[in-house]
Every structure is written in structure tokens, then in C-alpha cells.
Amino acid sequence: MRGLKRLLIWTLIPVIIELTGLLLVDKIYLNDETTFSTTKVDVSAKTQADKINVKVPDDANNFGISYTGNYISYCDDDGIKIINTSNNKKEKITFDDGIEMSAYKWLADRDILFIAEKIIYDDGSTYLRFESYNPKDNEKSVLSDDNRKELKILLNDDGYNVTQIALSSLTNVTYVKVDKEGYNSKIYRINVMAQAERVRYPICNISSIAAENKEDRLIYQDSSSNRIRVYGLRNPIATGENAIHYLLNVDNEDNIYIGNGENNIISKIFVANLKKTRQQWKIYTLSQPVQKSNIYITASGKVYINDPSKNTVTELVSGKQLTYTGNLIKAYDEGIIYRDGNKIIGKLI
């Protein structure tokens, strides 16, 4: 009998504890009159510090920025300067006698600088040579094939210069546009094996070039017939508009941005894609016409509109706006950089 009572007591104890707990939950935590003390956190008030703030000399020109904003580049009489924006450490890229920098461009998805150099030999012959620069390791490498043979392109004379570079990171193909005043442009295609061939296009005046990122296709602006063309395809990219067509850029998803307007004033932007129908294209009608040079298309497809009269930059789709002082230099995926006196300053959007 005593054993039975003890068993009943030990059985009831956990039941009582569970019922007590449920009662407390019902009366306290689930009571409609329970009040909570909360504090509103205004995350919009938190602003990230400007990432870029570096000093440059008065004669600095030809500015560039890596796709992450980690590095700023510029030219002066002493070569190319690279500044690490996190610590303002400066590196210098110099060129030997007889070698001059013709053009350079940052890759769209890596902190790598592609440099086109012009070499003039004592016998008067002139060649193009190409190098890549990795700022993280401060290393410069000459573009060469598997047998370490340097790639060189013979030019007719030293009056030619590289005026545009179009890079395709996924296909490892590079197009360089070479010009001399009074002559038709020459375009060279450099493949992954560091081999160059001249692109034989129909005779026309080429204003701008770009390259698709996922496909090995050259896009160019044929100013002679007011067409945006794709090398290797018979038909041009048709927008259905009669105004002047301007090739603005190609993003990482192979969207081709075509400005439409007159006298370098853009009123509409077409976002064409060769794998989509005309009905699937995006079309942006600008609220007011914009100078072509004030439109920036980034690798990720952001469209920035600069208004130098108000010192503002607006991201077209989101409407986000940044203000700046001095002169805008470039817009990139993370924001903008501008020059105010002898300082290059960045703002994140």
C-alpha cells in the first residue's frame, strides 16, 4: 500500500509542474494586456563611410577605377599610378625608353589592369605589345603564348594608337581598336592563346566598340550608316527608331545598351539582347535629354545619369541619387568617384 502511494505521488509531480507552466504561459505571456518595451532602430540613418579619398597631383589625368573600387589609377608624365583605396598606398608602373603607354583598361570582374604599349625601335618599326598588371601582388606580366613568345602587332607607323579596348572575361578574348587621324580604324582580336588577328569588317566609320561577355562577339557602332552592328552577323541591331544610334556599353549579361537621339544628346536607351525578341527588350525613356558623355553603364547593368549643373548622379532604375563637388570622373557598380581639387573622392550608392 505504501509503495502504491509513493508511485502515485511521483506520477502526479510532473503533471502538476506541466500544468503550472501552462498556466503561467496563459496568464502572463499570452495575456492580451501584456505590454512590450521596444526600441525603433533607424537603419536608414546609418551611413557607410566614403571608401575612397586619395590625393593626386595637379597633372593627373586618364583616371580609372577597378570594378570593386579597391584601386584607383591615373596617368602622369611618370607613367601609371595605382592607389590602393583602403590604405592610400601608391605603386608606379613605368615604361622603358622607346616604350609608351597607348591605352589601359580595368577588367570588368577582376582587379586586373590591361595595358596596351607602343614600342618604337631604332629602325623606325612600331609594334603594339600588351601587359597585365595585378595590383595585389604589384606584378606586371607580358602577354605571351605557351612558348613564352610575346604577342606583338606590327603597325604601319608610329602615328597609330590604341583608342579603345573591349574585354570579354568569360571567353578571354580582347578586341583593340587602333586609329590614326585620316585613316580607317583597325581592329584586332586577341584570343586566349595570345594570338592576334585583324578583324576584316566592311569599310565604314567605326565610332565605338564593345564585346559580349559570354559570347565571342564584337559589337560596333557604324557611324557611316547609323547602325549598331554585330561582327559576323548580316543584319544590324534594329531598334525601330529613326534617330541616331549610339553604342553606350555591353554589360556582363550581354545586354547591349543603345542610346537614341541627335548630336550626342540621348533621349531614349534601348537594352537589346541578341537572345531575346524585340518585345523583350527594356526601353528607358529619359525625362529629359542627356548628353551622351553624362551616361554611365556599369558591368552589372546599372545606368547612371550625371547632371553636372546640379552636381548630382542618379541611378536610373532605383532613382537613388548622389551629390558631389568638383567634377565627376566615373561611375562604377558601387558608386561614383569625383575630383575636387587635388583629391579623388568616392561615394557609395
UniProtKB/TrEMBL annotation:
Spans through the membrane: 7-25
InterPro entries noted in UniProt: 6-blade_b-propeller_TolB-like (IPR011042)
Gene3D superfamilies: TolB, C-terminal domain
SUPFAM superfamilies (alphabetical): NHL repeat
Keyword field: Membrane, Transmembrane, Transmembrane helix
Domain of life: Bacteria
Name of protein: Dipeptidyl-peptidase IV
